[in-house]
Every structure is written in structure tokens, then in C-alpha cells.
Amino acid sequence: MVYRVPGKHVRPYGTYDFAGVKNAEELQAKLKDGWFCSLPEAIDSKQTAPVVEAVKADDIAPPTRQELEEKATELGIKFDGRFSDKKIAQLIEEALVK
Questions:
Q1: CB 68 within 8 A of CB 92
Q2: What is the pLDDT of residues 31-47, one digit of tens each?
Q3: How far apart are CA 38 and CA 18, in angstroms?
Q4: How far is residue 49's CA from residue 46's CA, in Å, rounded to a whole number?
Q5: Torsion of CA 51, 71, 95, 59, to 10 degrees
Q6: Which terminus of the chain has a lower count of CB atoms within 10 Å, N or C?
């Protein structure tokens, strides 16, 4: 048996797939194609790979109101509910430049 992640079978925190091999030649071919001899090896291979899409999506998305308020509080910026997100972001930027 060989394993890879992701796949069509559900496991805690993800999915996986498996396939049977009949001989050493099939095993070597599957290993070259990105399959692994055990499920833990397949899972570890995906955990160490960088998650590029998630990082890019987070970097592009504007900060939420909660994130702005947390950063403003961290920087000691005084604000209240009347402040717009844009105004808080401007105050944060000014504080970071100083």
C-alpha cells in the first residue's frame, strides 16, 4: 500500500488516498509520483510544504476592524467607536512611521 495527501478519503484534519502495488517496480513508480509508504509520511510531506495560497490571501485582504483595534491598542493609540476603520488605519500608520 502507498499513500498520498490530499485524497478522496476523510481523516482528522484532512484527506488522503491510498493505492495497492503488486511489486517493487510499481512501488518505485508510485514513490516517484509523490506517493509514500505510510500515511504519516504523506501527511508530514504536506505539513512541511509552504502554504502559499493562504499566505497570499491573508496578505491581500484588508485588516478587519478587530485587527485594527488590537494593533491600535498595542501601540497605545486612543480611539473610540466613532473612529472609522480608515482613520484607525491612518493613526496606526503614523505611529509606525515614528
A1: yes
A2: 999 999 999 998 888 76
A3: 9
A4: 5
A5: 20
A6: C
